[in-house]
Amino acid sequence: MMRPRRGAEVCEQNAVRMMTQEDRDYVNDTYDYADYGYVEETKAGGYSQREALHIISVIIYSLAFTLGVIGNGMVIWVTAFKSKRTVNSVWLQNLAIADFVFVLFLPFSIDYVLRDFHWLFGRPCAS
User: Fold this and answer.
1) How far is CA 16 from the centre of its chain?
2) pLDDT digits (tens, 9 = 90+) for 38-82
3) Strands (DSSP E) along the chain, which ranges?
4) What's the CA angle centered on 24, arms 20 and 30, to 5 degrees?
5) 102 in a domain, yes or no?
6) What is the pLDDT of residue 52?
7) What is the tally of structural domains in the chain?
8) For residue 108, which of 75, 77, 76, 62 has the smallest C-alpha distance?
9) Can you tell me which residues the record assigns to a coiled coil (predicted)?
């Protein structure tokens, strides 16, 4: 006794039967990652383009950290102790505090780039 076939099974069997040898020649199950730029090729000078971008990003992160800590620290100090309490000064102080907290975490990003994108601080710090 044959059981009735479902629609998906029939379509799948028909698709397999219709595939000729010529169609099978075009099926590619492997990837060549070099075609997509995932493989780093070194230039004639002995460094790769990716390493140069890492160095530039570390320099920019370090500059942002230094200027951010100093600048936001000054704004927080001025708005907290030297200026009158107005809506605008409280708003500016809140912006400076938010940016200051963000800037305090930039050294983790710097370390992550310097270690070639290997996170050293474990799962709890990654969350």
Assistant:
1) 41
2) 555 555 555 565 788 889 999 999 999 999 999 999 999 999 999
3) none
4) 170
5) yes
6) 85
7) 1
8) 62
9) none
- Residues constituting the chain: 127
Residues spanned by the domain of 94: 47-117
Q: In a 3-state reduction of DSSP, which class is residue 32?
A: coil
Output the pLDDT for position 31: 58
Nearby residues of 39 by Cβ (< 8 Å), 6 or more positions away = 33
What are all long-range contacts of 105-113, with beta carbons under 8 Å and residues at least 24 apart? 106/61, 106/64, 106/65, 106/68, 107/65, 109/61, 110/58, 110/61, 110/62, 110/65, 113/54, 113/57, 113/58, 113/61
- Asked if 119 and 126 count as a contact pair (C-beta separation under 8 A), the reply is yes
Question: Residue type at 126?
Answer: A
How far does CA 29 lie from the centroid of its chain? 28
**What global pTM score does this model have?**
0.60
Is residue 93 assigned to a domain? yes
How many degrees, rounded to 5, is the angle at CA 52 between CA 71 and CA 72? 5
Q: Is residue 101 part of a domain?
A: yes
